[in-house]
Sequence to fold (492 residues):
Amino acid sequence: MTGAGTRDVPPNASALVEALRGLGYSIPAAVADIVDNAISAGAGTVDIDFVWAADRSCVVIRDNGSGMGEDELVQAMRLGAKNPTARRASTDLGRFGMGMKTASFSHCRRLTVASKKEGRLSCLRWDLDELSKSPTGGWLLFEGPCEGSESLVSGLADQTSGTLVLWEVLDRIVTDGYTSEDFADTVDRVGTHLAMVFHRLLDGSRLKLNLNGRPVMPWDPFLAGHAAKPWESPPAPRHTADGLVVVQCHVLPHQDKLTPDEHRRAEGPGGWTAQQGFYVYRNRRLLLAGGWLGLGSPRAWNREEAHRLARISIELPNSADAAWKIDVRKSTARIPVALRPWLSRLAADTRERARRVFAYRGAPSTPGGANPIVSTWKTERGQHGIKYTIDTRHSAVAAVLAGSGAERDLVIAMLRVIEETVPIQRIWLDTAEAKETPRTSFAGEPTDSVAEIARTIFKDMTMRQGMDEATAKRILLTTEPFQQFPQLVAAL
Fold:
């Protein structure tokens, strides 16, 4: 007992650490947490190496930051080294004083950290197997690397400062049946995650990440500067009691406006549907990628195909962690009640804009954007729901009707049958299952095939209808899908 009415009840070290292993860090998120510490230490370069050696495989993460002296390293290895409520430097990416340890323990049983400051090297090690053998249940830190692992912490030899984190005994990674191919897949997932999480820091000279000797290239969720991007809002700042929050809304181009490589890269790690929604940043570091954070009325919005092109960035200061309920893994956030109406309005507008682009392939327009487009289909909303009908003003449809003569009633009957049998359910199901919109608007068709159809309609307009060529071309340029082929129309 320590005093009247109180007791000192320290936790059993081994039992607590084993429990903390279940926090749920993914491998990519755990590596990103180690990189956060390097950035907070002022590192400009971080080298991450996954070394395959079956059950002796390891992960080495080395930076060229300011490093730590012996006392600082002891504090860094202590669980709960920081008070989460304490004020921190604006560039500090940590909060709980737990990240490096819990992230590491989630995947390894032996964590060694070597750090060099002003040319002096310190090295400490947590070993969960040795900790479990302690009869006192105490917190026993070992000095130096494990016997046989000395070469793995030698990477700081040529640096005056920096820190090296070593994961060994990867019992949560290298499991039964795990192969070198699985290890390579893990490395790929880590690279994809780091490219997304640190893209704002990698896009410039502030930070360089190397993964197994190759630079990690940034992945921009918003396709900044792309010529086909239909819309982005100006940044919207909002001053709060916890600091400045800045929001910017984006609608990405329809896939018809992207090359296959651009479309594949822009979809992100989770695919187009999963990556829609909010992207929450703290000090330019991405915390949360995608999802609508519980917004929506009367029911919370789900991630739906129709809104797959909507992405919204939210930049927070690290003083807002508590208000936004950022967790130790930096993987969840909750919108403060006071900001929900504002963000709901912005998100609803962005979702509707994205839906229009998705439905109309970028809101069809003429090359100059001045005239409305005559679409093949019209959307009619009535008391019994939505119905799709063929627009008889379309040049191709109007030409057939005008030239049908005695067969006009038969042609109209055919159009009605087509309208009434559009396979809407099948299209919806195919789109949802394939996570891609069906190919239309002559996508992938040879130019000669498109030109032949355009010539047929152009001939009817100029010969049977008596239009001059300039008028016929102007009409074609306001008719779906020929507005997408201005050079072809000009050459008719």
Observations:
- The chain has three domains: 13-215, 231-360, 377-490.
- Residues 13-215 form a domain with the Heat Shock Protein 90 fold (CATH 3.30.565.10).
